[in-house]
Amino acid sequence: MTDFTMSTDADGVATIVWDTIGKSMNVMNQQGFLDLDALIDQALADDAIKGVIITSGKQGTFAGGMDLNIIAKMKESAGDDPARGLFEGVMNMHAVLRKIERAGMDPKTNKGGKPIACALPGTALGIGLEIPLACHRIFAADNPKAKIGLPEILVGIFPGAGGTTRLSRKLGAMGASPLLLEGKLNDPKKAKAAGVVDEVVPADELLSAAKAWVLSEPAIVKPWDEKGYKMPGGAPYHPAGFMTFVGASAMVNGKTQGVYPAAKALLSAVYEGALVPFDTAIKIEARWFTNVLMNPSSSAMIRSLFINKEALEKGANRPEAPDQKVKKVGVIGAGMMGAGISLVSALAGIEVVLIDSTQEAADKGKSYTTAHLDKGIARKKVTEEKKTAVLGLINATTDYDALKGCDLIVEAVFEDVGVKADVTAKVQAVTGPDCVFATNTSTLPITELAKAAADAEKFIGIHFFSPVDKMLLVEIIKGKETGDVAVAKALDYVRQIKKTPIVVNDERFFYANRCIIPYINEGIRMVKEGVEPSLIENAAKLVGMPLGPLQLVDETSVDLGVKIAKATRAAMGDAYPDGEVDEVLFWMFDQERLGRKSNAGFYSYDEKGKRGGLWDGLAAQYPVADEQPDLITVQHRLLFAQTLEAVRALEEGVLEDIREGDVGAILGWGFAPWSGGPFSWLDIIGAPYAAERCDQLTAQFGERFKTPDLLREMADKGQEFYKRFGATAKAA
Ligand code: NAD
Q1: What range defines the domain where residue 382 resides?
Q2: Which of 19, 319, 340, 620 is most buried, judging by how many CB atoms fall within 10 Å of its CB?
């Protein structure tokens, strides 16, 4: 059995069917390439075969992409010269695709050759589009659910099997840039409008249309193999092309702040490739691709954002328990979070009972889903029928009896132990003993809240981030007595709503907030010290954080910060370390500069709420010092503040798996994605350097930078987190 099989019909058209064994969607691996290559050789050599159609054996999809584990295999294939292994491996892929593209034509005259069409029943991503791009004509079934594109840039690499070179030659640098640089995916009709696929046909005519084309003796020479080929929109030295490339380069640097090696390398591959013949361009692409794959940032991004993210989504840390798929969820509290939780649940087809203390509040929560669907209708992404069906799943009410039959409750009422305890008792008087009760608290200990529950084993934290419909991460928190079924329930639910879960233990602020608060605090602390606020904000952005710490305070609100500070101080007493931070925060609160919501915060806002520059009134209270720290020092303070907290969370057993620490950091609060997450970052810079740097920061700025014992030990032993704590090994 192989992933590719070929059969030839009476008219001499060979059909190669890709059907990866044991997977629901096709993925390319090394053996797959060898098999495809052998079949292409056979088809080209067989005089009875007039042409070829490459298609998929999977219903409604073509391919999901490359098995990225292939990269590690290529690296290993050349012993101590991994770059050579990569380059040769990539060039081998190019050879197969180029063979398809040239299809036996005479290299000089371009005569001869056999037409090769690609027929896409649906989704075609990554290598799943690079193969079609090497074919002579791409047919796509009119399947509106299909996604067609090259998303590689989103995991820190770029399309390296000819996709970069072929697409930029097919569409021009400008036309290809949203597809290559942003990883934009299109449905078949939009892909045709963008020029990516050549024809969109009804699904049941896909193969017949491709066959008719193959038999029509079509011209098959690619434009770039013709004499006098000119890149659409102009090559770099053409006046129009020049503008495109200058603009693209500025845009890439503006968007990535120069921290993502793949975006720069991609642009270089397109730019340099545009100046030379196709076969040389492919080699250039392969060199840049190798360069990117050798960069530790790319490996870390692939590991966290592709391999580990997927593993967590598939239940890598799910305890053994029968299927816990949710059928009916009760959401208590129809405020900001409850409204979002109802939306994502109903979109996943789950029946929702949305409860608040007044009917008005419950209806308001449901109206969030209505507004979301209406936006979708305006954008032609949602139909009226879908809207009716989704809204029909949400029962907004004040009647707790409606919760009968729920197998999961997600509570999102006010952040108050007493209110939550009341609600828990009221809910459990209606639901049976098997119903799992989850709280969306962001600050209250789960074990404490579980005391109000009938059965602490069935009580758990499911912590969403705001806005619920946009944020990809969900943090699942086990209280001391939380049982396996509750964990499995939470994980199965998160899977249903298509988000990424991490499972952590119950300590103050769990994982994400625990790490993000020190980041914010470090930024505020620097304001107090007289560090120029624009230096703080820009240092954060230049190291890859999506928001500077001061902007983050504005977004989450100063009053929330004040509330958390007061509660933490009350809980910690004399050990509370953040008095200096509070001074600034409380002063802002007194000035009624609460952040975006009050149109005034560390930043200024206009009447419409549009954010302007940093607020200049800050300097009157906290003057900017004459001497400013260097950029790296500010960046290290901001990064270590978060990273050391992640290490402490691991040491204390809050985190049980560093993969969750890294994936959670990127998806939860945007920890510099280029680094692959805090643990990957420590592996990139090395534990010895990290420990040394912490010692310096401690001496200069205080005990909060003290090297955690675990990091010290790893520095002494020269260890790496991913080697020591491996893919599946538990830390604690
Ligand atoms: P919110 O104030 O917007 O909504 C709370 C809702 O609960 C209100 O509609 C209120 O009427 C309702 N409510 C209060 N008491 C009730 C009761 N006894 N019975 C039924 N309904 C009741 O608050 P929110 O921002 O949605 O936060 C809700 C929970 O989610 C809190 O525990 C909060 O800590 C947590 N959380 C919030 C965020 C965030 O960014 N806002 C993020 C993660 C978690």
Answers
A1: 328-506
A2: 340
